[in-house]
Write a structure and sequence with these properties.
11 helices; 40% helix
Length: 266
């Protein structure tokens, strides 16, 4: 439900989420590193579900031309403030990832969809989102889709609150692969989960060419209590380990977040 998703995001600190700890920084750093080989100095990028600009801002600082949209009005307001502080010309608007009607076909060199699939529990809405991202991407352009794997969700949920443990929660996450905000076992808002095999099949069905598939946080969330105590030298060693393992299929499945980078065929 759109209103529930907006309300839920207004209750969390999305701006600092990926910088709030060393373990969470891994997702951000890995995503930037995975995207960088596909960037040029004048890339025209659409950031769908941009949040407060966690990726829009650094990509604009790298020289890319950014258009950023998000469902949550307060996110766009904050992104505008941050962009103004840094004198970055980012075009922003409030919108829904299932309809990018503001944009013509074949407009962008790169489209980022780094959040919307987390919350689209209706399969038709998922397909609309993916289809729209493809439509506005130039032929031979690149689209990045982030997703949440079901396999790490249950431990993450109960780690912070054992009162949430239930067989219904297991069933919804592993079997149904979604949780609605109306479900008794809901721990936040509408959430959709895709296995690595699920997301690859969906994107191949859309005739995309998969170029990279990476576990953006790998084992970092599972071992966050250790990682967050590391000094900078130790953290860099952890990142070296992560880079060597984040494309191993078993690690991708166990990661909290995954990222698929695909190319639109000409």
């Amino acid at each position: 439900m759109t209103n529930d998703i907006i309300k839920s995001y207004m209750e969390i600190d999305e701006e600092h989420r990926l910088q709030s700890s060393l373990a969470r920084r891994v997702e951000f750093l890995t995503t930037i590193e995975a995207l960088t080989p596909f960037l040029t100095s004048d890339s025209n990028i659409l950031d769908v579900g941009c949040g407060t600009g966690i990726y829009s801002i650094p990509l604009a600082e790298m020289g890319a031309e950014l258009t950023a949209m998000d469902l949550v009005p307060s996110h766009i307001q904050r992104l505008n403030e941050l962009a103004a502080q840094k004198n970055l010309p980012i075009f922003t608007y409030v919108g829904n990832a299932t309809s990018l009607a503001k944009h013509k076909n074949n407009t962008f060199d790169m489209v980022l969809c780094l959040g919307p699939l987390y919350h689209l529990i209706d399969k038709n809405d998922q397909k609309k989102c993916i289809s729209e991202c493809i439509r506005v991407t130039k032929p031979n352009g690149v689209i990045a889709f982030a997703y949440i794997s079901p396999y790490s969700v249950f431990p993450c949920v109960i780690r912070g609150d054992l009162s949430r443990i239930s067989l219904d929660l297991v069933t919804n996450i592993i079997d149904k692969k979604n949780i609605s905000s109306t479900d008794d076992c809901c721990f936040w808002t509408d959430n959709s989960f895709l296995t690595p095999e699920d997301i690859e099949k969906i994107l191949l069905d859309f005739h995309l060419e998969i170029k990279d598939h990476v576990a953006t946080d790998g084992q970092s969330i599972a071992f966050q209590s250790v990682i967050n105590e590391m000094d900078e030298e130790q953290f860099q060693i952890w990142l070296a380990y992560h880079r060597k393992t984040c494309r191993i299929p078993s690690i991708i499945g166990a990661s909290n977040h995954g990222l698929v980078i695909a190319r639109k065929k000409e």
